[in-house]
Prior knowledge:
The complex is a heterodimer. In chain A, strand 8 (323-328) and strand 9 (331-336) form a beta hairpin. The longest helix of chain A has 23 residues, at 33-55. In chain A, the strands form 4 sheets. Chain A has a 4-stranded antiparallel β-sheet with strand order 5-8-9-10, with helices on one face. A 3-stranded antiparallel β-sheet of chain A has the order 1-4-11. In chain A, 33% of the residues lie in helices and 12% in strands. Chain A contains 12 helices and 11 strands. Chain A is α+β, with helices and mostly antiparallel strands. Chain B is an all-alpha fold. Chain B is globular. Chain B is built from 8 helices and no strands.
Amino acid sequence: MTHIDEGTIHAWLDRQLDEAQARDVESHVAGCAQCSAAVAEARGLIAGSSRVLMALDDVPGGVVPASAKRTMPSVPKRKWQAARWVTSVSAIAAALIIAVVLRQSPAPEVATPADRDSRRLTPIAAAPTAGEQSAGPAAPAPARAPRASDLASAETRQAAHADTRLEAARIAGAQRNRDELSTAQRAPSGGLSASASGAGVVGAVAGSMNQARAVAPVSPEAPPAMADAATPAFAEEKKALAPVASAVGCYAVSSAQRRDLEPGVTRSATAAPLATQKASRAAQAPAAAADYAPATAMIVRLDSIRGAEGLLARLVPSDTVAGFWRVDGDTARVQLRNGATFNIALRTRIRCP
Amino acid sequence: VTDVDRLFREYHDPLVRYLTRRLGDRDWAEEVAQETFVRALRQETLSNERAWLFAVATNLVRDEARKDARRRHHLELLREEAKASSVVEPEITQLERAQDRALARKAIDALTERDREALLMREEGLDYNEIASALELSVASVGTTLARARRRLMEAYERLTNTKQGTA
């Protein structure tokens, strides 16, 4: 019998051969000094590789400066721009703000300071090509992977995508910064909205009296003053809202709604140690109510924007999920995991941070 | 995908570890992982979800990782960071760990892209079918790919270690 090739030996040691193959290898190795030595060597290589790779885990965040990361080609610029938060009004200085993100319609292309900040957050390098599908330039193409759903329009996906990126980066930032930033530090200075990270800074909320400020001490490229320019003026939403899944944006809510919302605020969760977060995550029950069907319900995240003054809810594919919601006519019906439910009139949309 | 929560719980940690090893930066890895989950969210269904997630994440970093300048920059920054943060731990330990890390980084960078990705995926527990799917390889070639990757990694690592000792 010919000797067993190295690939097969590794497959055997990785327990990736079927039973018959494994038996063949085993019996051959038992009687072949050369292959036996090869197996011993392969064991050494496997163990050694694992050990070497483990050394790579001891890597702090923020190693790559934000300027470098900004060139990450994940989303074509055009798509990101299409995902701008919809502009709208209201003079909501000290009002509650709820930013709700759904799978959503494209926002109008209006350049604002906040938009510029957003671009800082989402690093983009690769020039987009026209007519790209949502998968983008670095699109996955595993042989057996399902292709992107084409039910939703590309724009819808882009919008949801971009907003989620914002949130995702923000969460990452909050988690990373939890040691450096106490809740107390975070809340008064714009908290979540201004939490910066190696990945960038999420634009801050601000009413006419609120100054958005970056808090993040981590990234040398995101100095605290950076977000000062992002003091948005709230402008009234003029365009008619689509009836379904068209609620990317921020909403003003009444003080009565605020009482319902507050228990869902996850600021404390993002500030908590990771272990606590994991525990609370495990404790979360799946969304119940039948009329919050998965097909239309979106995950909601609520965060305190500015201490007691604001709340922010965003789509997030991760932990600290506060609840679910769906759009029903011109109303977003929200159900938090703590059981609280409330509605948000979509026409109260305001300019997002 | 509607059970993003579950997907996240199951795969976030291995995916981030994979990406951290791949990129050398945990923040960046988190960012790519989040991006990956966002894309999963847009999928109607995922039949081979772990392979899909790793494939997406791999594709997201691939183009960038090809840029050698970036990688060299990583290494320089890693070294800088190691020098700068020797406060908490005893200096010698800190230094040793930083050196280990730098060597491991150099060694893994010495592999071809495909070998590196296959190896890192295997380390996260993907089976040969999943690796084959994610990297568009034949299942039969995964063993050979991994054998070569492990051998080259160890050879590069030992060569680097010897060089270090030689200069020390």
